[in-house]
Design brief:
This protein has eleven helices and twelve strands. It is of the alpha+beta class. Strands 1, 2, 3, 4 and 5 form a five-stranded antiparallel beta sheet that branches. It has a five-stranded mixed beta sheet with strand order 7-9-10-12-11, with helices on one face. The longest helix is centred in the middle third of the chain and has 60 residues. The chain is rod-shaped.
Length: 464
């Protein structure tokens, strides 16, 4: 059974992980589609502005016309590569303010629900003539050449389109008295980028319903899985407790039943029937075992009561006298075990309202457990704390209780240590019943223990 539960838990976790990965994959795909749709919409708005706005067309025509003149000078060897690029920078910088003003003005007419910035960067400037290919500018991944538009950092997500300006140029010009024929082709590639403040948040916002629904479904699945596994483990625990209880009660019943069977057989013998002393001894044995069986049945019935079913008959008692009497009786009943009790009952005049019978049963259960599990020295301390709680602690030098078992120590039918070994008699009801009695007094009971280092049980009762 434990292997099956472990397999089920592992399979459930694997299934949950697979579901998580599937949801993450679907969410990523949805996000990508939403992002593409959003950027396409923004791209369309920018394209309409860039392609169909006369004032912006006029600015583009102006810088292109001036730049061609600079290229003519470059082909005539009048200016250098760096001078051409520097001149292009100067031209576009002088026009950029007007470009941004016209762009922002046109953008307002689109009634977009977000702030959209735009710029063009230069990718390549290449001149081709009959003899060579001359690259004036080549894109550098570490830096970019902004041609026109707003300043902002960009990446692959901000890229919306590439455009190429191609033109052929041929002319004659006299330089220093020499007539020169010039012919070349221009290849000028640009790339458009946009920047939308918080665009990822806008895309995610459009997926709010999907996100909430996915979260709710995922939470629901985890909750159902958690409760299913917890219920299975709980049922397993109940089944184990039931099995342990049956094993324990069977073990406890075997001895008196075997003795009764033997005594009954002896009564049938003539020599026993003719011997009054043997007859009396046999009848006494039957009577003792009958009482023992009755006590076992009463223990199961009475010790199974919950604290709300216990009817207390409280009376005011002198705590020191009450505890001393109880401890003296305990020592008398366990005289053969050579038990030592160290008493620290501080307030000799203190009184408390309790049900003597029930609280005595709870305390005796704790003391008997200490002896059962190897305790020979028990320290009993009683005092009233500043917060008006009356505390009684019982410390022993027994074998102690593991941390794992302490969680279930006050559960019905639970027995610490190896449940399959019955060298310690009991049904696992004593500490459960003690806890219910203390709860009925509106108090609580706790344990502090470690394996091989003894245990300390503390009962806390309200004095008021």
């Amino acid at each position: 059974m434990p292997k099956k539960i472990s397999f089920l838990i592992i399979a459930s976790i694997a299934g949950l992980l697979a579901l998580s990965l599937t949801q993450a994959y679907l969410f990523k795909n949805t996000y990508t589609q939403k992002k593409v749709a959003f950027l396409n919409k923004a791209n369309q708005a920018v394209s309409r502005i860039d392609d169909y706005t006369p004032s912006i067309d006029s600015i583009n025509d102006k810088w292109q016309r001036l730049f061609v003149k600079e290229l003519d000078n470059y082909n005539l060897k009048i200016s250098t590569n760096q001078e051409v690029l520097s001149r292009l920078r100067h031209i576009t910088d002088s026009l950029n303010s007007s470009f941004k003003t016209e762009y922002d003005k046109e953008l307002k007419t689109k009634n977009l629900a977000y702030n959209l910035k735009f710029h063009k960067i230069v990718k390549h400037i290449i001149l081709v003539d009959s003899t060579k290919i001359d690259t004036l500018f080549k894109e550098d991944p570490k830096r970019f050449y902004r041609l026109l538009g707003h300043d902002f950092e960009h990446n692959t997500d901000s890229e919306i389109s590439n455009s190429v300006w191609q033109t052929e140029r041929s002319f004659k010009k006299t330089v220093d008295g020499i007539s020169k024929n010039v012919a070349y082709q221009l290849y000028f590639e640009t790339q458009d980028h946009i920047n939308i403040d918080g665009w990822r948040g806008i895309v995610l916002k459009s997926m709010t319903t999907l996100l909430i629904l996915s979260f709710l479904i995922f939470t629901f699945v985890i909750t159902i899985l958690f409760y299913s596994i917890r219920s299975l483990i709980k049922q397993k625990k109940i089944a184990d407790i039931k099995t342990d209880f049956i094993n324990n009660i069977t073990h406890e019943l075997k001895t008196p039943l075997a003795t009764l069977s033997l005594a009954t057989k002896m009564l049938r013998k003539n020599e026993v029937q003719n011997n009054p002393n043997t007859m009396d001894t046999t009848l006494s044995t039957i009577e003792r075992q009958n009482i023992r069986l009755q006590k076992l049945i009463d223990q199961v019935l009475n010790n199974s009561l919950g604290y709300h079913e216990i009817e207390l008959q409280k009376e005011m008692v002198h705590t020191k006298v009450y505890l001393d009497t109880l401890l003296d009786d305990f020592l008398l009943s366990f005289a053969k075990h050579n038990i030592e009790i160290e008493r620290h009952i501080l307030d000799e005049n203190h009184k408390i309202s309790i049900d003597k019978f029930y609280l005595s049963t709870a305390i005796l259960n704790i003391l008997e457990n200490a002896v059962k599990y190897g305790g020979s020295k028990i320290k009993v301390a009683a005092q009233v704390s500043p917060d008006s709680w009356f505390r009684i602690s019982f410390s022993d030098n027994g074998q102690g209780i593991s941390k794992k078992d302490q969680r279930f120590l006050f559960d019905k039918f639970f027995r610490a240590n190896d449940k399959e070994v019955h060298n310690v008699k009991g049904l696992g009801l004593g500490l459960y019943y003690s806890n219910q009695i203390v709860k009925a007094h509106h108090g609580n009971i706790s344990v502090d223990s470690a394996e091989g280092a003894g245990s300390t049980f503390t009962i806390n009762l309200r004095t008021t």
